[in-house]
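Kindly review this protein for my students:
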Amino acid sequence: MKDFFTLKNQLCFAIYETASEFTKMYSSVLQPFGLTYPQYLVLLALWEENGVTVKDLGEKLNLGTGTLTPMIARMEGNGWLRKERSRADERKVFVYLENKAYEQKPAITERVSEKIEACNIELQEYERLMEQLHRLQHKLQQQKS
């Protein structure tokens, strides 16, 4: 019988180690652009939908305002995006991409694609992993309800 309570048999540790390797990989790819992995996630979200509130961006990325606000400030200082307070409701702050984010997108996505391809993850394997991870995430979310 397999001992599930050893470190090497813990699913959480395998996911943790894999996430750590992904973060290292992305960090090395993004470093020449002056971006961190979480900042790249902000760009991905805004490339999908630009001009969202800080609150909505935080919900999409599962990041609290305590983490997101200083990150947005750094990215704004580096010319990636800008914040604008809503005229209709001053409590809302919207985040918009700057030209730099659009100009650098092809180079960033090309470098990321090259690095992912170098991992030799086939398309079917990628799709299967995404499906399994989404199912696992859903099960974990259901468990806390």
Q: What stands out?
A: Strands lie at 52-53, 81-85, 93-97. The chain has one domain: 7-117. The two ends are 32 Å apart (CA to CA). The chain is about 65% helix and 10% strand.
